[in-house]
Specification:
By secondary structure, this protein is of the alpha/beta class. Helix content is 46%, strand content 17%.
């Protein structure tokens, strides 16, 4: 019922517009969002711009899914559409075909919500195509591992380690983090580890691996699209302090995956 008004508007526009661009295709970039302006510019805005250049024949729009982020941004005068709002606006403009690319890392709760949103408005479109998140297939995981290792160096002989920290989820998709962790070791990078803030592997499992190898130094790297709240608070403060208490020298590299050009290209290839 809450979207009846939008549906009526779409219907009226459809009837009255003689210049309806029925054959147009739009690309909707969907992000969780962030309130950190600097990291948003380097990640979300950057990949949106790259998508606009790569798909200049399409109308490119964005949407956020975090209600908290959108509320905080609205208080600062920054308005962001939800996926449903963005889709309804596109339909009101006469667009019937939409490709959706989320910037999520795994196929977790946010992906489930996005698909449910799409289901609600699907009858108004000829076609809505929803792509997959960064980590979905074995090939995806292999490519991401390659990017991570090439970007973050650590000398095993000096007992240096790198710990990639993702968000995690309660659902089965959290297994992707374990898969990345396993692939790194299978590739011979025993001093590279993966842990999650709200899933598995945990901080404890990663710490146990580092201790078993008698590690001295560890660099914490967000396995997150943006280096926002979790990176600046959980990782830079809580995780850093916890590992330092264990006698480790800890550095933090505040860089979201969305800042990495190779990662941006992986998303673009998914759309292609």
């Amino acid at each position: 019922m809450k979207y009846v008004y939008y549906y009526i508007c779409i219907f009226l526009v459809f009837l009255c517009s003689a210049t309806c661009r029925a054959q147009d295709t739009a690309l909707l970039m969907v992000h969780f969002g962030t309130t950190y302006d600097e990291t948003r510019a380097k990640t979300i805005d950057a990949i949106n711009e790259k998508a606009e250049k790569a798909f200049s024949n399409m109308t490119v729009r964005e949407a956020y899914t975090s209600r908290i982020v959108m509320k905080r941004l609205a208080q600062r005068g920054v308005k962001k559409d939800t996926p449903i709002d963005a889709l309804l606006k596109l339909r009101a403009e006469g667009i019937k075909t939409v490709k959706i690319q989320p910037s999520y890392i795994i196929d977790g709760i946010e992906m489930e919500r996005l698909r449910k949103d799409v289901e609600q408005v699907h009858p108004f479109f000829d076609s809505i195509w929803v792509s997959t998140p960064l980590l979905y297939s074995v090939e995806d995981a292999e490519k991401v591992c390659e990017v991570l290792v090439n970007r973050h160096s650590a000398d095993a002989k000096k007992r240096e380690h790198v710990l990639f920290i993702g968000h995690g989820t309660e659902g089965p998709a959290t297994a992707l983090y374990s898969q990345i962790d396993y692939m790194l070791r299978a590739g011979g990078y025993d001093n590279y580890h993966v842990a999650t803030i709200e899933g598995y592997p945990t901080q404890e499992t990663a710490l146990a691996q580092i201790k078993a190898m008698k590690g001295k130094k560890v660099t914490l790297v967000p396995l997150l699209f943006v280096a926002g709240d979790h990176a600046n608070n959980d990782i830079s403060v809580e995780w850093k302090e916890a590992l330092e208490k264990e006698g480790l020298t800890v550095d933090v590299r505040l860089e979201g995956l969305g800042e990495v050009l190779e990662i941006q290209e992986l998303y673009i290839k998914k759309i292609k």
